[in-house]
Write a structure and sequence with these properties.
The chain has one domain: Beta Barrel (Porin), CATH 2.40.160.20. It is 10% helix and 68% strand. It is built from one helix and eight strands. An eight-stranded antiparallel beta barrel has the order 1-2-3-4-5-6-7-8. The protein starts with a helix and ends with a strand.
Length: 174
């Protein structure tokens, strides 16, 4: 029984590794458009989804160990608390690690550090009076997966902490 289990485990691992191909190699670049559901608290509702764009440049990559990319991330969203509009912006450098699971599918983790701005303006009786404007160090971290429709185009989803809690992206690799 132990031999059968060992043989099945070996075949499963060998099959997984043989199907997995790294989709990013050093020098590859990708541009992605993202759409996400922002984090909200009680009483805050989403006005627009989080819109984002990212660029990544692969600096290291190997068939079995995955790839490491550096890049930039920018995102914007609008929310509302009663009559108070709230806008958020995050812009900064990004580090992404990708690991191939199957031939057309990989999983990734990304970390973003940078400039974060949140502002809220009261639009009632005192229209235009600024009630909150804060600029600070921002951070975000996500994990997700990408499915490659072709060698150049992929779609994917990610979840995490930071600018949005659930996102979807369309990427073009060049």
């Amino acid at each position: 029984m132990k031999q059968l289990l060992s043989i099945l485990t070996f075949l499963l691992l060998a099959t997984t590794v043989s199907f997995a191909q790294n989709n990013f190699y050093p020098g590859d670049m990708a541009f992605s458009l993202e759409l996400g559901i922002p984090h909200t608290d009680d009483g805050i509702r989403m006005v627009t989804p989080a819109f984002g764009a990212q660029f990544e440049y692969t600096v290291m990559g190997h068939e079995l160990s995955g790839s490491l990319s550096v890049g930039a991330f920018a995102s914007y969203d609008a929310q509302r608390m009663d009559t108070v509009p709230i806008t958020e912006v995050l812009v900064g450098p990004m580090l992404t690690y990708r690991y191939p699971i199957l031939d057309k599918f990989d999983v990734f983790a990304k970390v973003i550090l940078g400039y974060y701005s949140i502002s809220a303006k009261f639009t009632g009786e005192y229209s235009g009076d600024l009630i909150f404007d804060k600029k600070m160090f921002g951070r975000a971290a996500y994990i997700g997966g990408s499915y490659y429709l072709s060698d150049k185009i992929s779609v994917g989803v990610d979840v995490g902490y930071g600018f949005y809690m659930l996102g979807a992206h369309l990427s073009y690799k060049f």
